[in-house]
Amino acid sequence: xxxxxxxxxxxxxxxxxxxxxxxxxxxxxxxxxxxxxxxxxxxxxxxxxxxxxxxxxxxxxxxxxxxxxxxxxxxxxxxxxxxxxxxxxxxxxxxxxxxxxxxxxxxxxxxxxxxxxxxxxxxxxxxxxxxxxxxxxxxxxxxxxxxxxxxxxxxxxxxxxxxxxxxxxxxxxxxxxxxxxxxxxxxxxxxxxxxxxxxxxxxxxxxxxxxxxxxxxxxxxxxxxxxxxxxxxxxxxxxxxxxxxxxxxxxxxxxxxxxxxxxxxxxxxxxxxx
Length: 274
Prior knowledge:
Blueprint: H1 15-23, E1 29-32, H2 56-64, H3 66-78, E2 83-98, E3 113-115, H4 120-128, E4 132-134, H5 141-147, E5 152-155, H6 157-162, E6 171-187, H7 188-192, H8 196-230, E7 235-238, H9 242-260, H10 263-271
Parallel strand pairs: 3-4, 3-5, 6-7
Antiparallel strand pairs: 1-6, 2-5, 2-6
Helix pairs in contact: 4-9
């Protein structure tokens, strides 16, 4: 955007703070999690649901295509034009990390003592899969894995490395049960005040940045998994029951999405790329 508009980057702002500043017109744009938009565009929180995506290709095709445009239009409508979705970033998958062996399928989840986030919908989904849920603060997970209070946890490879969870649980099963999505959003009024040439430049740059961000994040996840395997001796396993995982958890996703009033959008997301 050099020579078109001036851009100032602010770092160290958490997602909830960024959304408040964005809605108040104090920020022009931000990259935020779906959950941070829960109070102004709750429909986007369905992107965080466990078991929603068949694989990363499904995630990408859904959000890069017509369904992503439908969701952006819905956000525009429910926020009365205050929030404009410019792109969907992310792509990092969440996996299972366990103390003893991998989890090859649904049967391996039965009675597994797994630390799960304090999220009512995600909690119900894990319960439906037969997991014995353990609710802990993130700072307590490593000690719980060490003493056996928990037999496993879930998370992305970078978090597992950063918090050294592999020291107590050296088995990683690539379930990809959730894929992180972050929304690149703009303040609609701020965008509207710009000249047409500036808006076009910003949208073009947003498209390029979105493509780069997804490629970078996918590459980084592969690097983190390789680092866990090659430097820290973590064993990597495949999860063979993706279809069963999705079908068992589907009723809970549908119930939650009906409450959001976004069933048509969910069905479109599920069918994308078939």
